[in-house]
TrEMBL record:
Taxonomic lineage of the native organism: Bacteria, Pseudomonadati, Pseudomonadota, Betaproteobacteria, Burkholderiales
Topology with respect to the bilayer: Multi-pass membrane protein
Cellular compartments annotated: Cell membrane
A single GO molecular function term of this UniProt record: transmembrane transporter activity
Organism of derivation: Undibacterium rugosum
Protein name: Branched-chain amino acid ABC transporter permease
Amino acid sequence: MEILGIPLQAMMSQLLLGLVNGSFYAMLSLGLAVIFGLLNVINFAHGAMYMMGAFLAWMGLEYLGLNYWMMLLLAPLVVGVIGIVIERSMLRWLYRLDHLYGLLLTFGVTLMLEGVFRSVYGVSGQPYAVPEALSGATNLGFMILPNYRAWVVVASLLVCFLTWFVIEKTRLGAYLRAGTENPKLVEAFGINVPLMVTLTYGFGVALAAFAGVLAAPVIQVSPLMGSNLIITVFAVVVIGGMGSILGSILTGLGLGVIEGLTRVFYPELSATVVFIVMAIVLMLRPAGLFGKE
């Protein structure tokens, strides 16, 4: 069966690939949106945290014999603690300054982290095997669905929408939003706002590390894997609306699918279609699709 001259199986394979990429876009842009929306910091180090999550998964298996499932829990915790140290030691002094200072600081952190991993492991990349429980594929009739890629999509959607629910629909999320808008008032109710801000940053970078562990079996683990992705993720955040949680999730998934379809019909445009969409959106709606003017 063909659609517009394209075999159905080829089209569905590219759509699945686009959905997998969109899942990574959604998780990374979600972490960026959480940090910017609640802390007002443009965290350029997000790609480095994604890379560290993947490398910790590889190191855990290579040096300690810890399997994929253990590192799926441990790597985000470790990176979250590293994020807390960065926030407490550096970022906390920049909250009242222009966004540019936070951007430059986190860019410097990115260069240092990438430099350390590059000097130790090089840039060629390290393979990470798909966990045995998720190996193989399922025949759906119209396409062959790799089990691990299906898991990536499901796990990403669960984490993304659970995060959205906590921030937008629970009392904890209300405290977080209120703490960024009027910290003195929230502190008057006995809530430790600085601690809440620190944990929020740690949670945001832990999301990036979780995405990194999910990505490790899909792509080779490399010190440059974060820098290759972060510009596209920033474009996703801008299109969805800076600080919009739901906008980041839906835009990330949608742009991944658009990118996959572009590979089918006009492959030469697939590397730039996200930025074309960003330019169009900014001309029509400068605050982004889900952002507030």
